[in-house]
Amino acid sequence: MTDWHGYRPPSRPIRVEGGLTLRSKRGDIARTWWSRRFLEVLESFGMAARLARGRTYARTGQVMSLSLSTSLVVALVTGTRPEPYRARIGVRKFSDDDWRRIEHALADQAIFAAKLLAGEMPPEIEDVFRDLGLTLFPGTMRELHMDCTCPDWEVPCKHLAATCYLLAESFDTDPFEILAWRGRSREDLLDRLRDLRAPIPPHEPEARREPPDDSFEAFWARPKVADVVPDVLEPTTRRPDALLDQLEPLVVDGRSVTDALRPLYRRLAK
C-alpha cells in the first residue's frame, strides 16, 4: 500500500539495535496481579485483538525508549520507516484533594501502609479507591487517551500495543509507577504515609506566664511580700534609752536630767 506521500513501506519493520524487549519471550507477559489487571482493563475496552498485534514488536525490541510522567507515557517505536513513531498513552491524574483523601485512607489501615512501605501493592487497594469514588486503573475508554504518529488510524496500533505491553512489565518491576502515572511519586507518597502514621506527641500544658510589671493586671494584683519595701528600715540593734530621745530636753540646776537617766535605762535593759 502506498500512502499519500507516495512512500511504499517495506513489509517488515526495521530492526533496532539496543531496543527495549520484554523479559517474557512466550506466553503471558504480566507476572503480578496489578500488571495483569492493567492488561485486562485494556482488553475489556475491546482491544484484545489489536493488542496482540504489538506483542512481537515488544518482544523483538522495536520500542527504543519508554518514559513515564504524571498522566503521560511516551514511547519511541521503530516501525517500517527509518524515523521512529511516537506513541503516547495518557490517563487522568488525580487532583491534590483526591490524593489527600487517598493518603488518609491508606494511612488509616496499617496493612496498606506497611505493604506500600515495603514496595508491595496489596490487592485490596482497588477497594480503597473505589470507596472514595475513584479507580486505580482507567474505568472507561474516556479516561484513557492514545495516539501515535504512524499512519494507522486504528487504536491501538502496533506501536501503541507494544508500548502497553512494556508499560505493563514496568508495572511488574515497580508498582509505584501506576501511582506516579496518576500523579503521586513514590517518594512523595511514602513520605506522606510516614507523616500520617507517626505518633502524635503528647500535649504539654503551657507554662503560666506572669504579667509584666507595667501591665494593667499587675497594677491591681496584690504585691508579693518580697516586693514590699518598708519606708523605715528597722535597726539591727535596739537602744534601751531611745525613748529619752523622744522627750523634750529636761534641765535641773543646770544639769541635763535626760543625760543622767541614760545610764540607768541601759542598766535596767541588761
Automatic annotation (TrEMBL):
Q: Which PROSITE patterns match?
A: ZF_SWIM (PS50966)
Q: Which residues cross the membrane?
A: none
Signal peptide positions (record): none
Q: What range(s) does the SWIM-type domain occupy?
A: 137-168
Q: Name one Pfam family in it.
A: SWIM
Q: Which GO terms describe its molecular function?
A: zinc ion binding
Q: Does the keyword Zinc-finger apply?
A: yes
Keywords, comma-separated and alphabetical: Metal-binding, Zinc, Zinc-finger
Q: What is this protein called?
A: Putative Zn finger protein
